[in-house]
Amino acid sequence: xxxxxxxxxxxxxxxxxxxxxxxxxxxxxxxxxxxxxxxxxxxxxxxxxxxxxxxxxxxxxxxxxxxxxxxxxxxxxxxxxxxxxxxxxxxxxxxxxxxxxxxxxxxxxxxxxxxxxxxxxxxxxxxxxxxxxxxxxxxxxxxxxxxxxxxxxxxxxxxxxxxxxxxxxxxxxxxxxxxxxxxxxxxxxxxxxxxxxxxxxxxxxxxxxxxxxxxxxxxxxxxxxxxxxxxxxxxxxxxxxxxxxxxxxxxxxxxxxxxxxxxxxxxxxxxxxxxxxxxxxxxxxxxxxxxxxxxxxxxxxxxxxxxxxxxxxxxxxxxxxxxxxxxxxxxxxxxxxxxxxxxxxxxxxxxxxxxxxxxxxxxxxxxxxxxxx
Length: 373
Ligand SMILES: N#Cc1ccc(CCNc2nc3cc4nc(N)[nH]c(=O)c4cc3[nH]2)cc1
Hints:
Layout: E1 6-12, E2 15-22, E3 25-29, E4 31-34, H1 46-51, E5 57-60, H2 61-66, H3 70-75, H4 79-83, E6 89-92, H5 95-101, E7 105-107, E8 112-115, E9 122-125, H6 127-138, E10 142-144, H7 156-177, E11 184-189, H8 195-208, E12 212-215, H9 223-234, E13 244-246, H10 252-260, E14 265-268, H11 270-276, E15 279-282, E16 285-288, H12 308-311, H13 315-323, H14 327-353, H15 357-368
Parallel strand pairs: 4-14, 5-6, 6-10, 10-11, 11-12, 12-13, 13-14
Antiparallel strand pairs: 1-2, 2-3, 7-8, 8-9, 15-16
Helix pairs in contact: 6-7, 7-8, 10-14, 10-15, 11-14, 13-14, 14-15
The protein binds the ligand N#Cc1ccc(CCNc2nc3cc4nc(N)[nH]c(=O)c4cc3[nH]2)cc1.
Ligand 2YX binds at residues 92-93, 95-96, 144, 147, 149, 188, 216-217, 219-220, 247-248, 268-270, 273-274.
């Protein structure tokens, strides 16, 4: 298995910064991946995504296999050509989305069987089928094993069964993925919030061997503190010299505390989903542009940003767009939010490189988490 080179250039405590080299481009770490679920980062053109300094986006097996189908994406040249993104794409394997989106689903040793939330059609997702969809039909650069994620709180015995099934599916995923030089396969650590189970899951993943390791089973309702407490021990269990990816995370404070505990990669729908609802993420914490206090606020969201959505429009104008339910409001706030998430990662990479991460972390807590304004 040839892994993508991952070079750590500096570390500061558990935090580390480096670069993950892929055939479609270098990914600076720690990195935030905007979510492009149905072959689009919602409401944004890819020029906007590129201008936000995003280097890699996430796609979803579950959504694309249902619509337009993975076979059609393949016939149209694969996901990169289909959507016009020539940078790296990481795809999730589908199991998590089945459990969170499909009303009817069944998990057996062989596969997950489910009915589409779109038209009720029946589908089967096995490790082998997930690998075929991600690696061969979509043409993903970073492929995720098929896994089973339990909801929280989880019964310890149930969480153990899920991690053991995930490990068996991880082996089958690797066998189906085979030897590839231009694509990588990541394993997914499970075990809910039980240290003993996180250790068991890691041991099984390391026996199999992957190009990178995701931390699954979190951001499922456990809350920030329990997530941080779990990361404290479960992130360092993973190989220091391979990328660590915390799935589905998160809010800006989650990113800072995840980086502090050794996480390199993140993805979350939050910046785009919250942007579509008027929530704006700023260095001083979140605000909602629909609040009346912005009706005549002539200042931009962030005059220091290089993102036009942050710099070139007044809060008053954005407030108006949301009150008038103009689509442009959703576009500009989504753009601002993903640019802010990228700016946060850029600042953290620089802070780690300068040996100043703890000072940045302290500043961020004092500035971003101050009383809601
Ligand atoms: N707005 C908004 C918003 C919506 C949902 C979330 C929670 C996302 N959490 C989450 N995504 C995940 C994906 C995952 N994929 C896989 N294959 N395995 C996981 O254990 C897993 C765990 C996850 N946990 C966070 C913010």
